[in-house]
Specification:
Bound molecules: S-adenosyl-L-homocysteine, iron/sulfur cluster
CATH topology of the largest domain: TIM Barrel
Strand order of the largest sheet: 14-11-10-9-8-7-4-3-2-1-15
Number of strands: 15
Number of domains: 2
Low-confidence stretches: 349-373
CATH architecture of the largest domain: Alpha-Beta Barrel
Order of helices and strands: HHHEEEEEHEHEHEHEHHEHEEEHEE
CATH class of the largest domain: Alpha Beta
Oligomer: single chain
Radius of gyration: 21 Å
Structural class: alpha/beta
Strand content: 15-25%
Length: 373
């Protein structure tokens, strides 16, 4: 998107509006005109002037009344492994991050944020140390996708594994998904979208009942209830037995295999009893376990101990024990670590934009900084 300057914010923003909402705001324009505008927005155009199939007076009228977008790329970093991380500035000056990951087969996955910060404070996650600034609106989520697509057009998958807890922002997430999957526009397949949650029971039930049918990943971390509450405070009011019940319910309603994610913290949740507890939690559910070796974040301490990555022996032993219990186990690829763009490392650009040590940072323009290149 060529949005070098932040748009004026005194006008309503069109990006991220579902088709029906767009029709409402553009009244009395006929539906075929609404369709045209709906199709232009995802192209990341510089202004309404580029909507060449609209008559000039209409383009000018729209320009006076509306803004197309509300965010700009404030910084860009690339890891030699292909990962791209964008720092994105919101209209009120808050910053968020969005990441593009490339797997071994060259498939591209957009990892999107749903909140600026996160209120849940998991002890191993950088975003959690920031607290919550605010929920993102549908347009701000949509524009992360558009910004990433302007860099790599062929995005195959979307995961909500960036900053924030998606199930605490379901209304705006649903609007975004309505726009993204609408066949009058991008028509992105729901099957290629995965939502990761720390385990908000009411949100999972809501999703099971009202949809949309997305892939669901639960950040289990450990099946040991007491340890989980110490690592993830959200677990105090969303206890494991109830969480398991609602996963059953989701599976019955949506008929899809669930992913259990476990970020592995060396020596803390990699013990024999942890693999046993994880296997016990998984029993009876149709799941695949995704192990995520903890990605380092500076100065993270848990009950007086510095967090560390699991050793390759710990990781191999943990995997083997789960497999012996009949579980299907995958391991998250270590991607984007040199640019702090891996899981749990987002949130560095809270106030001041990217630190100059990490990247060249120029307000309002797209700057590419190749790290280690
Ligand atoms: N809030 C949601 C989604 C964003 S976090 C959730 O918690 O699921 C996405 C994933 O990153 C979660 O599975 C989380 O456990 C994991 N994670 C957080 N911090 C991490 C870190 N430092 N290293 C590796 N994974 C981390
Ligand atoms: Fe929030 Fe997820 Fe990080 Fe926990 S792991 S603090 S829920 S973003």
């Amino acid at each position: 998107m060529q949005t070098a300057v932040l748009p004026q914010q005194d006008k309503p923003v069109l990006s991220g509006l579902p088709w029906e909402a767009l029709r409402e705001i553009l009244k009395p324009l006929p539906e075929f005109r609404v369709n045209q505008v709906f199709q232009w927005i995802p192209r990341g155009i510089a202004s309404f002037q580029q909507m060449t199939d609209l008559a000039l007076p209409l383009r000018e009228d729209l320009e006076k009344r509306f803004s197309l977008y509300s965010t700009v790329i404030a910084g860009r970093m690339e890891d030699p492994d292909g990962t791209v991380k964008l720092s994105i500035r919101l209209h009120d000056g808050a910053y968020i991050e969005a990441v593009l990951l490339v797997d071994g087969a060259g498939r591209k996955t957009a990892c999107l944020s749903t909140q600026a910060g996160c209120p849940l404070g998991c002890v191993f996650c950088k975003t959690g140390t920031r607290g919550l600034t605010r929920n993102l609106n549908s347009g701000e989520i949509f524009e992360q996708f558009l910004h990433l697509r302007s860099i790599r057009p062929d995005i195959a998958n979307i995961v909500f594994m960036g900053m924030g807890e998606p199930l605490l922002n379901l209304p705006e997430l649903r609007k975004f998904l309505a726009v993204l999957t609408d066949t009058r526009g991008i028509g992105f397949s729901k099957r290629r979208i995965t939502l990761s949650t720390s385990g908000i029971i009411a949100g999972i039930r809501d999703l099971a009942d009202q949809g949309p049918a997305l892939g669901l990943a639960l950040s289990l971390t450990t099946g040991d209830a007491a340890l989980r509450s110490r690592l993830m405070p959200v677990s105090w009011c969303n206890p494991l037995p109830k969480l398991k019940e609602v996963l059953y319910y989701y599976q019955q309603r949506q008929g899809r295999r669930i992913t259990l994610e476990a970020v592995l913290l060396g020596g803390i949740n990699t013990r024999h009893e942890d693999s046993e507890a994880l296997a016990a939690f998984a029993q009876g559910l149709d799941v695949v376990v995704n192990l995520i070796p903890w990605n380092p974040v500076d100065a993270m301490v848990f009950e007086g101990r510095s967090l560390r990555e699991p050793s390759s022996r710990e990781l191999a032993a943990f995997t083997r024990r789960l497999e012996q219990r009949g579980l299907k186990v995958t391991q998250r690829l270590r991607k984007g670590r040199s640019i702090a763009g891996a899981c749990g490392q987002l949130g560095g650009a809270s106030q001041e934009g990217y630190s100059r040590r990490e990247a060249v940072y120029t307000e309002g323009s797209v700057v590419s900084a190749r790290i280690n290149a």
